[in-house]
Design brief:
Blueprint: E1 6-10, E2 13-17, E3 43-44, E4 49-51, E5 62-64, E6 74-75, E7 80-87, E8 95-103, E9 111-118, E10 121-129, E11 134-141, H1 143-148, E12 152-159, E13 179-188
Parallel strand pairs: 3-7
Antiparallel strand pairs: 1-2, 4-13, 5-7, 6-13, 7-12, 8-11, 8-13, 9-10, 9-12
Length: 189
């Protein structure tokens, strides 16, 4: 691989995208991708809390489907997004995934459903409503997902209801928002 190439695993399928990291896309729709290198190997230490704001390190795990980080977090952009992690050591137990996030909801767009997959395995669908649009959600990642991935974990989020501010007539912003991730943590159970 060259530094301009992207390689990974998405939903259990290995992929290579030559030149992906040199793509030029206008505005905020530029992919939030860190090129594979010695400085970013997607390393993750179980129990570490990643923050997805402009000064946190969470963005280094974003592969696709994410907007630029903002002072409070990073918005998804599109129908799906992916995070990639290479565990420093394979946990001996299942892992609790703790996500602190805010769903994009308005008076006209009152719910957001997010299917969460770990290495291609559907874990759950998170449902956000006006009454429960933010806060902490937790779910279990079976150890077998990590074992099957050789300690590499792709977390894919599939948004059932993404919508842009432009579609709602609220602004010219065309990003199709679903979830703004503030922080993420994975703890062995």
């Amino acid at each position: 691989l060259k530094s301009a190439d992207l390689a990974g695993v998405m939903d259990g399928i290995r992929f290579i995208a030559p030149g992906f990291n040199t793509m030029s896309v206008s505005g905020d729709r530029r992919p939030a991708v860190s090129p594979p290198s010695t400085t970013n190997n997607f390393a993750y230490r179980p129990g570490a809390r990643l923050v997805f704001d402009t000064i946190g390190t969470g963005g280094s795990h974003c592969i696709y489907g994410w907007s630029r980080a903002q002072p409070w977090g990073t918005w998804s952009d599109g129908d799906s997004s992916m995070l990639l992690f290479k565990f420093s050591s394979l946990p001996r137990t299942d892992v609790e995934l703790i996500i602190r996030a805010i769903a994009f909801l308005t008076e006209r767009h009152t719910s957001q459903r997010v299917e969460v997959r770990a290495n291609g395995r559907v874990l759950t669908t998170l449902v956000y409503t006006a009454a429960q649009h933010n806060g902490v959600r937790s779910l279990v990642i079976p150890r077998s997902c990590l074992r099957d991935g050789g300690g590499v974990l792709s977390l894919c989020f599939h948004y059932k209801d993404p919508v842009s501010l432009a579609e709602l007539g609220l602004s010219p912003d065309v990003r199709r928002l679903g979830l703004c991730v503030l922080s993420l943590e994975m703890k062995p159970l």
